[in-house]
Amino acid sequence: MKYTFFIFFVISCLTTFAQAPPGDLIIRNGTVLTITKGKLEETDILIQKGKITAIGDHLKAPSGIKEIDATGQYIMPGIIDAHSHIAIDAVNEATHPVTAEVKVGDAIDPFDLSIYRALAGGVTTSHAMHGSANAIGGQCQTIKHRYGVLDPSAYKFEGAARTIKFALGENPMRVHGEGRGVQPRTRMGVERVIRDAFQQGLIYKEKWTTYEAEKKKNPNVPAPLYNERNQTMADIIDGKIIIQCHSYRADEILMLLSVLKDFGVKKITFQHVNEGFKVAPELASFGAMASVFSDWWAYKFEVYYSTAYNATILTRNGVVTSINSDSGELIRHLFHEAAKTQRYGDLSDDEALALITINPARQLGIDTKVGSIETGKDADLAIFSGHPLSIYAIPQITIVDGIVRFDKAKDPADMRLYIDPEEATPTYYGQEDVDGCMRDTEFMFSHRH
Amino acid sequence: MRKIFLLPVLILSMACLVTAQPLDDDLPQITGCIALVNAKVVASPGQAPVVSTVVMRDGLITQIGPNLKIPSDAYRIAADSLYAYPAFIDAFSYTGIKEAENEGSQGPGNRGGQRPSFDADGNPSLEDAGITPYKSVRATFDAKEKTIADWRAQGFAIAHVVPKGKMLPGKGSVVVLSGKEADLMLWKEDVSMFGQWTGAGGGYPSTVIGIMAKWRELYHNALQSVTHQSSYDHATLISRPKYNQAHEALMPVVMKEMPVYFRAPKVKDISRALALQKELGMRMIITDAEEAWYVKDKFKSGTIPLVLSLDLPEDKDEKKAKGGEEAKGAKEADASAEKGTESKGKVETKDSIAIDSSANIVSADTLKADPEKEAFEKKRAESLKAYREQAGILEKDGIAFSFGTMSVKTSDFSKNVSTMIENGLSTETAMKALTTEPAKLLGIEKYCGTVEVGKMANIIVSTKPLFEKEAAIKYMIVEGSLYAYEIKEKKKAGEKPTEASFDLLIGTWSYTIESPDQKRLGTFVFTDDVGELTGTMSSDDITTGIDQLEDIVIDDNKVSFTFDFEMGGQLVDLDFDLKLNGETFEGTVSVGEFGSFSITGARTAKPN
Questions:
Q1: 3-state SS record for A247-297
Q2: A95 by DSSP, 3-state: which?
Q3: pLDDT of B269-314, one tens digit each?
Q4: Minimal CA–CA distance to B414: which of B2, B9, B17?
Q5: Which tens digit of pLDDT belongs to each residue from A179-211?
Q6: C-alpha dist (Å) from residue A118 to A12, A86, A121, A433, B425
Q7: Which domains are delineated in chain A?
Q8: 3-state secondary structure of B494
Q9: What is the rounded distance in angstroms from the CA atom of residue B214 to the CA atom of residue B219?
Q10: Is the Cβ pair B569, A223 closer than 8 Å?
């Protein structure tokens, strides 16, 4: 059958280097930017079964293993995007201010071309997030960019921390307050909605604790009504989920920190956090992390007070900081975004690269697996023609689990894996939503009170 | 939108020369006994035809064999040259289901009708959320629905029908497609639960992620309800279980007594339904599948039965090619160039268009000029082929499947099965998917699916072996009721109607389409363009401008044509079927899976 053949052909293009056994590879003689252990010149990396098994000079490799000559090239850990909305078919379940129970991992789109586009920029992992329509949005999904695999569940990053989207400020106010005439209409309302949701979670948790205790005495005692939303809030209180909060203004950031203190919640990464530079010491002392844009602001009122020094100020204050894309286009030049911190703030090479590697890995609870080049870690690597912080560097090869998923030398013109035979002839392949955060919310504005 | 398309002229003119028209909706049944004398009987899929006589009495097959003594009270059908097959069983359909009120309000953005109301927690009612597993299909099944007679005319005697709705529309039943009232037609009630990825529009859950979360919660609570109820029945000091009609209705599902028929046309729909099944563990049947070949390995074990869609994607190229052969000429080529559906090259080479009389020659030229477009079209053609090969590929891999008619138009049914057969599906497996497989799936194989003594008298009598070119159904016997069809020569596709018949149509017509939320008004203009019938359509309330009508066919007082437009990158078709009564007309317009609506109109101006 021709079509199946065609799919296999594309996949085989993706995996040219990784013939049996898959995930075995040796990269010779490159400049290795380990991030955590400095720069290693003229070094080999041995990969077996998708893991880095040795790093060193003139490594011995099993015979027949595929070899990549990286002489004169730079190898860095696969870039990690802490905030994106690619590879998912549903971003916002915008019909309620609190939708803690929904999971974007249920809507993975293995055919999204953005995955390949991200690979072309050296990005091997991204954090596919629920949007910012709701004060408490849905649970997010950390994915590995295994483009070519058709099973959606195969994109899930095994062992990644559970994360959930919160959103402060204008977006939830607009969608629910303005759009539907319900709380929250103001920033005060956003706080109220979040406090109420936590309170519901506490009450729910107590009900079930009582039930479990009762059950030991009487095995027939009926269980309380199961509620996915409250259960998720209880899981946050129990520290099982890291909050990822869309935020801009310093006052609302401090507001959320005080809410979290009241409910004993400790794990949080603030997203966007444009005024983070104003409250960097407070974030550091709380243990909160930050994921920012390099220099993107003024696209709405609450984002005017911003600076390109944000990442540097946060880093210098000891906040674990990452730079994210929030865009299917920006995702492919995150290395440029990181480099801007050297222009605005003089971060060192390792500090700048940490913003798109080990730091986002910490924020997503995957730092023991990816984010640096170390023996035992996943072989998620990006090979560049020059130093990735140089504007002249071009991504050459991107490797996920030891499998080459992007190779600039073998880059077909059309990488679609799914072709709708009724689709009109496109003028270009794949369309990008720039404001991914508010996808699937348009209909909320069609009727106003 | 999934739509069917017109096959090229070649196939049309060969395969569809004959068409069956019902002689009479209600042929008076004089006797309860029918004898089909000396028919070539294909008793079950794959068997060779054997000349036999089949005697049926009171809805059952009572005797089969050569040289039978025919009962004296039997209504005899001389079937010497005819073939007899077990009638089809539809594994999954909306046959006989009335359009739901406010049917137009599906999907985000289209609230059509009332805004959902919310409770104190901001959640919509079960009804507004589309969570109605307690509904039985019986409430919306109507014996007078036209679809019953339409599908019977295509060879169907039994159908598994489900209610319309959103994420959990309700319970399906098995019906016999013959009878004057719903109760007589209902055979097995509430045999299945229907699920799909259809959000509640303006309310929760509106997306696939909301639907998933809701399924988890409902399933969990239904399980708890089962336990609670059991404790209440058997232990003491247990509070009375609170009644919740959704949880109550889902109890047989979580007890794995009732299967969930999950509608999953696209591959991602299938993957998500399978993930849900894996997580919750319900009995699931994947239905209306159009793209199952992507994940065929998941069906090899046979634990998840599969019902394939009979719909096939429309081939724009073939359609355009057909348009070209009908020589609509430069005018249409210009129009489509403006729409940008063909290629920009066309606008620049306007001179050559004036010379070329057919659109397909133009597109062949532009293909050469644009290698990127050529590569794109090649991929599109490969993809199109994959849909046609689906059934054949599954067959080769030994994966059993049934067919369901939910997404296919009656007029495309036999054409699409033939296309699948041309693309690798064996006739035997096609027959199985329409008889014995759905019988097994629905647990009715003891009663029907083959022509055997003791089985229900459900028989197709056709002029040629089924799915062969020029085969047409002459009689349908459904539980012993006889339906006869007139075999009529159809005009060859492309054959020009007489100029005289043009006069019936040319001029300006106003129309009114009755869509559920509002009336849509507009105008058709038909012209005699130097021996070619052309037409345009404009709408009073949608600013699509004026656009060309395609495939205009006039046959006596019947007129059909289509109108294409692009919506979100997809080609959407409006198919019109009108009956002219002098200066007025009435008929239907079907808009793919959105259903069909009635249309009326009157001529407002005639040319001199």
A1: ECCHHHHHHHHHHHHHHCCCCEEEEECCCHHHCHHHHHHHCCEEEECCCCC
A2: coil
A3: 999 999 999 999 999 999 999 999 999 999 999 999 999 999 999 8
A4: B17
A5: 888 999 999 999 999 999 999 999 999 999 999
A6: 19, 9, 5, 14, 40
A7: 1-78+372-418 (2.30.40.10), 79-370 (3.20.20.140)
A8: coil
A9: 8
A10: no
For chains A and B, CB pairs below 8 A equal: 181
Q: How far is B166 from chain A (nearest CA, A)?
A: 16
Q: What is the pLDDT of residues B381-422, one digit of tens each?
A: 999 999 999 999 999 999 999 999 999 999 999 999 999 999
Nearest CA in chain B to A180: B202
Mutation to test the B interface, candidates A93, A149, A176, A446, most B Cβ within 10 Å: A93
Residue B229 to residue B233: CA distance in whole angstroms: 6
ipTM: 0.93
Report helix angle B329-339 to B359-369, nearest 10: 40
pLDDT value at B585 more than 50: yes
pLDDT at B435: 98
Q: Find the closest chain B residue to A228 by CA distance.
A: B217
**CA dist B106 to A240, B164, B166, B207, Å?**
36, 11, 7, 12
The CA-atom distances, in angstroms, between A345 and each of A151, A357, B266, B326 are: 43, 19, 49, 70
Q: What percent of chain B is modeled with pLDDT above 90?
A: 58
Pairing of strands A67-69, A74-77: unpaired
- Closest partner CB to B108 (pick from A106, A226, A440): A440
CB spacing of A106 vs B212 below 8 angstroms = yes
Q: Which of B125, B198, B207 to mutate to test the interface with A (most CBs of A within 10 A)?
A: B207
A32 touches A39 (CB < 8 A)? yes
Whole-number CA gyration radius for chain A: 23
pLDDT at residue B312 in the model: 96
CB-based contact B204 A95, cutoff 8 Å: yes
Q: Cβ(A132)–Cβ(A165) under 8 Å?
A: yes
Q: Which residues of B touch A101 (CB under 8 A)?
A: 213, 216-217
**In whole angstroms, what separates CA B501 from the centre of its chain?**
32
* CB within 8 Å of chain B, chain A residues 220-279: 220-223, 225-228
Mutate to test the interface with A, among B4, B209, B316, B339 (most CBs of A within 10 A): B209
